[in-house]
Every structure is written in structure tokens, then in C-alpha cells.
């Protein structure tokens, strides 16, 4: 079957499921994965044909996409800061906003490492709610001499995070922990604690796309409207006890809760509190330090 004919079927049958550009992008990713073709290959070779097994792969993917399944889960991987991360249904799909969080935290670590006052080498880093391991592994990649730990409540997510760390050939100590539990098992001091915790309000779920709210892990996305800062509070309390003086706490946040979180951190005695917008101009990150 001609690949361009399969593309036309995708454009027609997915028109009510996702925007046109997303359909084109999804099909391009499938072309690359199934055929090894670049995005504009059909312009150069409109007569390209696929064999029956490959045709079946495309139409199986089409059926998954029609049900609302994200293309990243269809393929089983996603890109993050130029690296490919394997995914399963226990892991969130890495977002470009989180790439900005990693870069901001890395800038802090570079400044900390260069400071003459640093007295506790190597750098100790903790990623809370690691999911696919994208934050922890990228920081381990950027700071290969550092000691990186990452925790998550989900054993399935941790299994995938370990796979990704092995692929990138970085060392991260992955631990199963409940952030809201009374006692975290490790008592290490850290220079950086970073987290992208659940922050989407349950009341926001109705307005979200099916492929997000029905396919990505609910517990990793959503938080109760009654206590939307529950994870931030728990992590900040841990940070108060386990950050070195001058150590940094970096969060990805819900823009709707920027002001309450800034107030919470100030009341808890953090200093150097700062919020930052993402590339879309929306409040998305907050940092704070231990005096």
C-alpha cells in the first residue's frame, strides 16, 4: 500500500480526535519508527510503498490514536532534552516545560559548584516523584560526579526509570518511597531537591484532553482541590531538614497556585524565593533556598 494513502486515511479518521498539525506530527513519528523515514520523505518519494506487516503496524497505531491514546504511549517512548525515554502507563509523558526545570536547576548547580564556599563535594541531588526518571537522569548526565537519588511511589515507574538510566549509562539510586509517608528511609543531606509533583486540580480534569486524563497515570497528575499544596508542603518540610545551607529547592507548579506556594515557602523560612514562567509565558516554576 502507498504510504501517502495511509497518511490520507490518518488525516481523515483522526480529524475529530486531534488538531491537524498533531496528526501530521504523529504520522511523521510513526514513519520514522516503522519505516526509518524522515518527516518530508513522502515529498521526495510519493510512490513509497509499505509491506503488509508495516501496513498493519500503521493501522494498529491508527486505532489506538482514535481511542485517544497519546502517540508517545503508542510508540512506547518520548524525547526529552535530546534523549529517548522508554515509557509505560505508570509514567507521565515528559513535557518540554520540564526540560526548562532541569536547565534552571542545572544552572543553580553550576553556580553552587563554582562557589568558593561550597564545602560538601560531590553534589548530592534528589528528584522527588521521578516517573520515567527524566529529571534525575539528565542531572546525572550533566553532573557525572554527583550523587543522584530519585524516589517514586510506583514500582512500575521505577522499573522504567532504571531502564532509562541504563540506556543513558548514568548512575541514579532509585528508591520506592511515599512522599506523604511519615518517614522517608534515607537521611542524606542534599544540595538540590527537585520535583515535578502532581499539581493539576481535580476540578481541571473535565477541560483536559482525553489522551491526558484517561491514559496518563492519574495519581501522578492530579491533586485534590481541598489541599492542592499537599505534595509541595511535604517536600518542603523534608527539604528544611535535608538541604545543606544554601541548598536549592526547585518545583514545577500549577500557575493557579503560584501565589499560595510562594506564601507557603516564605512562611516556612525559605529565602531566595523566585518564580519563573515557561516558554509559553505561564508561571511554571518556583525555586527557594535554605539560608
UniProtKB/TrEMBL annotation:
Give the Gene Ontology MF terms in alphabetical order: nucleic acid binding; peptide chain release factor N(5)-glutamine methyltransferase activity
Q: Which GO terms describe its biological process?
A: methylation
Leading EC class: transferase
Residues that span the membrane, as ranges: none
Please indicate which superkingdom the organism of origin belongs to.
Bacteria
Protein keywords: Methyltransferase, S-adenosyl-L-methionine, Transferase
Q: Which PANTHER family match?
A: HEMK METHYLTRANSFERASE, MTRF1L RELEASE FACTOR GLUTAMINE METHYLTRANSFERASE
Put simply, this protein is called peptide chain release factor N(5)-glutamine methyltransferase
High-level lineage? Bacteria, Pseudomonadati, Bacteroidota, Flavobacteriia, Flavobacteriales
